[in-house]
Design a protein that fits this description.
The protein starts with a helix and ends with a strand. The protein has a domain of 59 residues. By secondary structure, it is an alpha+beta fold. It contains two helices and five strands; from the N terminus they run αβββαββ. A five-stranded mixed sheet has the order 3-2-1-4-5, covered by helices on one side.
């Protein structure tokens, strides 16, 4: 019925199609830093990450840390309010 080469070729074509489709629909990762409320304090989180980069008691400290990281990568700092809405955006684009 099928020989080994044809089965392997079909599998290879399928894998290639999956990866090409994934690349077309995925956005490139950015280095934007979000200052977000976190467990009674504030945290800095890279856009797209689940884990936080750093935790802080004060929002001003978190903003300073986010600015440092964003400046190095030419990214933005997105500052959130305590309710999670966006308060401000600072751009460090090159």
């Amino acid at each position: 019925m099928y020989n080994n080469k044809s089965i392997l070729r079909v599998i290879l074509d399928l894998i290639t199609a999956i990866f090409e489709g994934y690349q077309k629909h995925s956005r490139p990762r950015t280095w934007h830093q979000h200052v977000v409320p976190y467990k009674g304090g504030w945290a800095v989180r890279r856009e797209g990450n689940k884990r936080v980069s750093s935790k802080h008691r004060k929002q001003s400290t978190a903003i300073r840390r986010a600015k440092t990281a964003a400046r190095k990568r030419g990214a933005d700092v997105i500052i959130h309010r305590a309710d999670g809405t966006i308060r401000d955006r600072i751009s460090f684009e090159d």
